[in-house]
């Protein structure tokens, strides 16, 4: 259940990894642009996110500027770009979102429906996942999922010691330019010690919370 441990979140560099969307390991999301607000206790981080079906780009706004993460689920890769040093890391990633699917969560936690509510003009279904583990670092996860966008607009991870939340706001349904999801020219690839693990299968995607 390590994926539900709050201490696994590294901010803001990994805001994209957590922020490219909580529970939405879908085959393809709707196309839209939004602002992402992450609250980690007293700390606040913001970013801009661009979603186009099975591609995602997130660019940090505050406190770090211009750190960029591009997820290409169609290619099975994620690029983490540092424009200041003109370098990038390439990670093997077979999911649009690296976090667990609804079915994965249900195997290790109990799921309870919270009904529906309106979030930024979108009807969303709420689900709270309570872990079976007694480990205090394992978080209870609450999501509010939009069936229209195929994306969770609110995700809250909570333990007795800490609360971490992701909120999508200022949502605009549009198809972002394809150039946003390509690796810019002139960047130098940084190698990860030991290399990156290979993708053992074609990109796999999970599902939305059960209705």
Please tag this protein with its features.
outer membrane lipoprotein receptor (LolB), chain A, 45% strand, mainly beta, 211 residues, twelve-stranded mixed beta sheet
Structure description:
The chain is globular and about 50 Å long. The model is unreliable at 1-27 and 197-207 (pLDDT under 50). Strands 7-8-9-10-11-1-2-3-4-5-6-12 form a 12-stranded mixed sheet. It has a single domain (2-181), classed as outer membrane lipoprotein receptor (LolB), chain A. It is built from 2 helices and 12 strands. By secondary structure, it is mainly beta. The chain has helices at residues 15-19, 102-108; strands at 32-40, 43-52, 55-62, 68-72, 77-82, 87-92, 109-119, 122-131, 140-146, 151-158, 163-173, 188-190. It is 6% helix and 45% strand.
Q: Classify the secondary structure makeup into a structural class.
A: mainly beta
CATH superfamily: Lipoprotein localisation LolA/LolB/LppX
Order of helices and strands: HEEEEEEHEEEEEE
How many H/I helical runs?
Answer: 2
Under the CATH scheme, the architecture is Clam
């Amino acid at each position: 259940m390590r994926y539900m441990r709050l201490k696994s979140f590294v901010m803001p560099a990994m805001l994209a990894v957590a922020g490219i969307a909580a529970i939405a390991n879908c085959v393809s999301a709707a196309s839209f642009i939004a602002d992402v607000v992450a609250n980690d206790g007293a700390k606040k981080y913001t970013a801009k996110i661009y979603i186009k079906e099975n591609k995602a780009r997130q660019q940090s706004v505050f406190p770090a500027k211009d750190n960029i993460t591009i997820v290409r689920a169609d290619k099975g890769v994620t690029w983490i770009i540092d424009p200041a040093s003109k370098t990038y890391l390439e990670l093997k990633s077979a999911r649009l979102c690296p976090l667990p699917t609804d079915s994965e969560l249900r195997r290790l936690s109990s799921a309870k429906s919270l009904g529906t509510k309106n979030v930024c003009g979108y009807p969303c279904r709420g689900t709270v996942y309570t872990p079976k583990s007694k480990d205090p670092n394992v978080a209870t996860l609450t999501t509010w999922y939009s069936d229209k966008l195929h994306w969770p607009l609110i995700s809250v991870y909570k333990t007795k010691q800490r609360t971490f939340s992701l909120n999508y706001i200022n949502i605009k349904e549009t198809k972002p330019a394809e150039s946003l999801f390509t690796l810019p020219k002139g960047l130098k690839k940084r190698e990860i010690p030991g290399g990156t693990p290979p993708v053992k299968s074609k990109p796999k995607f999970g599902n939305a919370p059960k209705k």
